[in-house]
Design brief:
By secondary structure, the chain is an alpha+beta fold. 38% of the residues lie in helices and 22% in strands. A hairpin with a 4-residue loop joins β7 (165-170) and β8.
């Protein structure tokens, strides 16, 4: 009888673990998509104050990647500027010019073609694949060619960002940003202003 009970218990435990494991990706996917949808909604309402309050981690900051001339640059901001004209090094246009839409999100990587000035797909996309821009590549460039130095705290922050982030692209507005889970909560940690800048 004990053997039968043990077998039943083991089988029940196995089923419970397998069902939990199979649910986790969907739970996380729903959570990620909910966060993205909320950020895009707030952006479409031009409610930058709410984005800053809800989705910017003051201790971590937010990487603003931009381009002046040929090399990419970055600056770590405490919050998103409230007005388009308040962005530093802004060559043109509004940074967060999101329109309210009901487009379905897709978990795919999307690329921008500077030859044709178009994305290879249209819609809202998110991906854990981070190819470009990467703060570590900017650091490597300036370390090699400009002999710049960076403190360990910043380098660790960059390593964490690049290992734990999701890239989001809304092709209709060219709004590209990364979100990162920090202490159990998702935050915007990077704004990409160079992918669609084909000037270099």
């Amino acid at each position: 009888m004990k053997i039968i009970r043990s077998l039943i218990l083991a089988a029940s435990l196995s089923i419970a673990l397998s069902s939990t494991a199979s649910c986790e990706p969907n739970v996380q996917k729903d959570e990620v998509e909910s966060v993205i949808a909320d950020i895009l909604h707030l952006a479409s309402q031009h409610d930058i104050k709410a984005i800053n309050a809800k989705y910017i981690n003051k201790k971590f900051g937010i990487f603003d990647i931009y381009r002046i001339g040929v090399p990419d640059e970055f600056e770590v901001l405490d919050a998103l500027p409230l007005k388009g004209e308040d962005w530093l090094h802004m060559p043109y246009g509004d940074i967060i010019n999101v329109e309210s839409n009901q487009k379905k999100m897709r978990e795919e990587y999307v690329e921008f073609d500077c030859g044709e000035f178009v994305y290879d797909k249209e819609g809202i996309f998110y991906s854990r694949e981070l190819r470009y821009p990467l703060p570590s590549s900017i650091v490597a460039f300036h370390t090699k060619y400009d002999a710049q130095t960076y403190d360990d705290t910043l380098l660790k922050k960059i390593e964490f960002l690049e290992s734990n982030s999701i890239r989001i692209v809304d092709t209709s507005s060219d709004f590209i940003f990364y979100i990162t889970k920090i202490e159990g909560k998702w935050y915007i940690t990077l704004i990409d202003r160079v992918t669609t800048d084909c000037s270099a």
